[in-house]
C-alpha cells in the first residue's frame, strides 16, 4: 500500500474514532405506555453537546433530532389513519347492535316484521322475517360471515364496541402526545441551530482578535 493510501486510511480511522456515540436514546427520555418515545428537551445546548466524548457538533445533534422527528411524523400518519378507521367503524357497530337488540325485542314481544330487500336496481321485494329462529348473520370481514344467536350477537357486538371505543381514546391521546413531541423536536432543532450560529460568531470574533495581536 502506498504512503498516501495509508495516510488516508489512518485519517478515516481517526475521524470515525472522533465521532461521538450518538443514538436516538441520547435524545429521548423513556417512552409512553404504548412505546412511543419521549423527546428530551435540552435546557443547555452547549452543556449537552459537551456531555459527549468528543463533544457533539450542531450538525450531529440536528441530524439525530431530524431522524427522531421523521419517526414521529410516521407515527402521526399511522395514528391519523387508525383514528379515521375507528371513527367510521364505531357508528357501524352501534347501528348493528341496535338492530340486533330491536330484533330480539320484537321476537320477545311476538311482533311481525315485514321488510324490503333488493332484487335489482330500483326493484324490491317484500319478506316477513322469521324472528322465532332467533339468529342473525354478521360480517366479520375478509368475506367471512358467521351466524349468531341474538344473545351471542349482542354480547359480541357490545364487546367489540367497547374495545373500539377504548382503542379510539388511546389513539386520540397518542396522536396528541406525538404532535407534542413533534413540536418539541422542532423547537430543539431551532435552539441547536441558533446556539451553533452564536458559537461560530463568537469564535469568529475571537479569531479576529487573535490575528490583530
UniProtKB/TrEMBL annotation:
GO terms for biological process: microtubule-based process; protein folding; tubulin complex assembly. InterPro entries: PFD3, Prefoldin, Prefoldin_subunit_alpha. Keywords: Chaperone. Residues 1-13 have a biased composition (Low complexity). One of its GO terms (molecular function) is tubulin binding. Pfam families: Prefoldin. GO terms for cellular component: cytoplasm; prefoldin complex. It comes from the Eukaryota. Residues 1-23 are annotated as: Disordered. PANTHER family: PREFOLDIN SUBUNIT 3. Belongs to the prefoldin subunit alpha family. Binds specifically to cytosolic chaperonin (c-CPN) and transfers target proteins to it. Binds to nascent polypeptide chain and promotes folding in an environment in which there are many competing pathways for nonnative proteins. Heterohexamer of two PFD-alpha type and four PFD-beta type subunits. This is Prefoldin subunit 3.
